[in-house]
Automatic annotation (TrEMBL):
InterPro entries: FN3_dom (IPR003961), FN3_sf (IPR036116), Ig-like_fold (IPR013783)
Protein name as catalogued: Fibronectin type-III domain-containing protein
Gene Ontology process terms (BP): extracellular matrix organization; positive regulation of cell-substrate adhesion
Domain Fibronectin type-III: 22-120
Species the sequence originates in: Hucho hucho (huchen)
Length: 131
């Protein structure tokens, strides 16, 4: 069953504090038929509270990768633990992953999460994630 986007939040440490050998948890929510909100972290925290724009890193960044199933990866870097990806194709399954990076090296990729950009008839935002 889908989970409402405003009920879930991931907490994180900066990449300098994150165990680079342990994959992060990744949550994906549809924003529009062509955009998604990704959130990642080390722990699951419910209900969601706060402003996602407050989570910035001091000494590292995250690399987000995504693709249509069985296609070439697109990668973007992000200084925070949330990111909106837009200009996606509607009604299309995408695979997403994230990893932390510090000044010395990159961490391991999260487990891949598949999310379909189709929002259906409901105006609510729903999530895809792996526990």
């Amino acid at each position: 069953m889908p989970i409402a986007l405003n009920l879930i939040r991931l907490t994180f440490d900066s990449p300098g504090k994150v165990n680079l050998e342990k994959p992060l948890h990744l949550v994906i929510g549809s924003v529009t038929p062509t955009s998604v909100l990704l959130s990642w972290g080390t722990f699951l925290k419910m209900p969601y509270e706060g402003n996602i724009m407050n989570d910035c890193l001091e000494n590292g960044h995250y690399t987000v990768r995504y693709r249509e199933r069985n296609r070439k990866w697109t990668q973007q870097t992000c200084p925070a633990s949330d990111m909106v990806i837009d200009n996606l194709k509607p009604n299309t399954a995408y695979e997403f992953g994230v990893r932390p990076n510090n000044e010395e090296r990159s961490g391991v990729w999260s487990k891949p999460v598949i999310h379909n950009t189709n929002m259906g008839r409901s105006p609510k935002h729903f999530l895809s994630f792996l526990p």
